[in-house]
Fold this protein.
Amino acid sequence: MPQITVLVIEDEPLIRMAVADDLHDAGFLVLEAGNAEEALVHLNMNTSIRAIFTDIDMPGELDGLKLAWLVRTRWPPIDIFITSGKQRLNAANMPGRALFFPKPYTHRLLIGALTRLTTS
């Protein structure tokens, strides 16, 4: 089975690196972005991205939730995973087929969800 590419979008470098390391250790190919604008560069250049994991609260014109809606519109097959320590979302607030992980979350839970959705 080919490796699945996941784009991790998080403005806190230590959190981003920890998530990326754990995903990598679980067998995923991982790309990293510190904000939505960097994420869009990756998405436009790399057609192998199968999933994104984005924090909502990030600097810049586009927050993680707006990015998630844009991804669903432009790249419908990409699986979307959203997190926040400040907001709580339900299905009505998110793009279709997106999953929400309130902070703090366990990386094991995220890895399990990514594995289930990206291998189905």
Observations:
- The chain has one domain: 5-118.
